[in-house]
């Protein structure tokens, strides 16, 4: 049975959760919980490893409970959150912050048991726990899995992903890995000037998914210190890479790197959805045109319905041009959410791709590089130094 951490002042609920979890439950009073950081909360409960499920009593203070659930989804994505409260009032908000379910205060032990088992199973998949049943310690969790998404091709995903990954790698040696998940036509290797010995196909079919040392020997290394999993050389190899393998790979990488950046194919194909199930920070990309904005709106709506869009998302508007006839507010009205970073059009991007040198290295003062620098600082809190002119 799953390991459960309960936040509630109700002795009756505590007894029901104890019964449903076969006694594998640690309880803390609500007052000790809602203002805490997730890692501090787990330490206060005397836990040396992550709980599989956190049950938060949201009957008296639903807003604070939702806020804490959002922090768990962002900071400790290897734990599933269940809220206790009014399902009709909380269901949509809970979905948006990454909670797995909302149960009424009078829920019986049988429904609690089945819910805990279901959430625990989902957590195991998210952790990529195939063949690895060991408890995940708090020290293994801080990784950010940053997935770059766009509903259509040609939006600049690879430019964003490669420059972001290089920028993060320069903030701390050995901190970052980039995965090219466009398995048919990925060109991360070209954008970085790499000629990989191993590709994604080799990684998922060898010992690398079981052995961290073998995994690191299959990574390509960029001059910036960035580690890279490049896409297969042939589109034919795409069918041999399964969503389950993608999930397991990202889970293992998240245990070894502070930042895992994922470049994806256009749209929401199964491997992208597998990556999103591991993602802590989605980066949503749209172009400065009506079709791009409408496509992103559909993608955002779909991700919300699937419960795969959390509050950590960043929305980027690429190829911004004041002469296009659109404004940023027009795009925001179409996608129904805020644009966080606006990236202008620049011919320097094409030059950087052609030469295999990311823009943040080749021309760090270019307006595009400066805007991407904001994204790098957002995730790292550190400005990279030593930029080459």
TrEMBL record:
Pfam families cross-referenced by the UniProt entry: CbiA
Entries under Gene3D superfamilies matching the protein: 3.40.50.2300, P-loop containing nucleotide triphosphate hydrolases
Domain CobQ/CobB/MinD/ParA nucleotide binding residue range list: 146-358
Highest taxon of source: Bacteria
InterPro entries assigned: CheY-like_superfamily, CobQ/CobB/MinD/ParA_Nub-bd_dom, P-loop_NTPase, ParA/MinD_ATPase
GO MF assignments: ATP binding; ATP hydrolysis activity
Biological processes, Gene Ontology terms: negative regulation of cell division
GO CC annotations, alphabetized: cytoplasmic side of plasma membrane; cytosol
PANTHER family in the cross-refs: SEPTUM SITE-DETERMINING PROTEIN MIND HOMOLOG, CHLOROPLASTIC-RELATED, SLR0110 PROTEIN
Protein name, per record: P-loop NTPase
Source organism of this protein record: Agrococcus sediminis
């Amino acid at each position: 049975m799953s390991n459960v951490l309960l936040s509630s002042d109700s002795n009756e609920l505590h007894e029901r959760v104890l019964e449903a979890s076969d006694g594998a439950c640690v309880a803390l009073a609500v007052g000790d919980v809602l203002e805490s950081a997730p890692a501090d909360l787990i330490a206060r409960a005397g836990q040396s490893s992550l709980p599989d499920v956190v049950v938060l009593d949201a009957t008296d203070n639903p807003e604070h409970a939702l806020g804490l659930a959002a922090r768990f989804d962002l900071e400790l994505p290897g734990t599933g959150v269940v809220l206790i409260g009014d399902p009709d009032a909380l269901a949509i908000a809970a979905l948006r912050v990454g909670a797995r379910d909302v149960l009424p205060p009078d829920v019986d032990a049988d429904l609690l048991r089945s819910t805990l088992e279901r959430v625990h199973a989902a957590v195991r998949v998210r952790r990529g726990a195939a063949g690895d049943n060991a408890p995940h310690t708090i020290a293994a969790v801080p990784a950010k899995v940053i997935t770059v998404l766009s509903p259509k091709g040609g939006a600049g995903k690879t430019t964003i992903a490669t420059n972001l990954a290089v920028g993060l790698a320069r903030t701390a040696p050995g901190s970052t890995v980039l995965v090219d998940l466009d398995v048919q036509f990925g060109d991360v290797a070209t954008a970085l000037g790499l000629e990989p010995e191993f590709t994604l196909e080799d990684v998922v079919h060898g010992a690398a998914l079981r052995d961290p040392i073998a995994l690191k020997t299959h990574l390509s290394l960029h001059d910036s210190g960035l580690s890279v999993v490049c896409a297969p050389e042939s589109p034919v190899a795409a069918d041999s890479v399964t969503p389950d393998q993608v999930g397991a790979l990202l889970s293992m990488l998240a245990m070894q790197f502070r930042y895992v950046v994922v470049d994806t194919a256009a749209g929401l194909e199964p491997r992208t959805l597998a990556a999103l199930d591991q993602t802590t920070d989605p980066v949503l990309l749209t172009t400065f045109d009506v079709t791009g904005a409408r496509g992103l709106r559909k993608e955002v709506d779909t991700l919300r319905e699937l419960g795969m869009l959390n509050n950590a998302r960043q929305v980027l508007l690429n190829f911004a041009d004041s002469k296009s006839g659109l404004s940023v507010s027009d795009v925001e009205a179409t996608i129904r959410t805020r644009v966080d970073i606006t990236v202008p059009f620049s011919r320097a991007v094409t030059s950087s791709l052609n030469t295999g040198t990311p823009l943040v290295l080749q021309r760090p003062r270019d307006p595009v590089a400066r805007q991407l620098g904001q994204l790098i600082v957002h995730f790292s809190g550190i400005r990279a130094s030593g930029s080459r002119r």
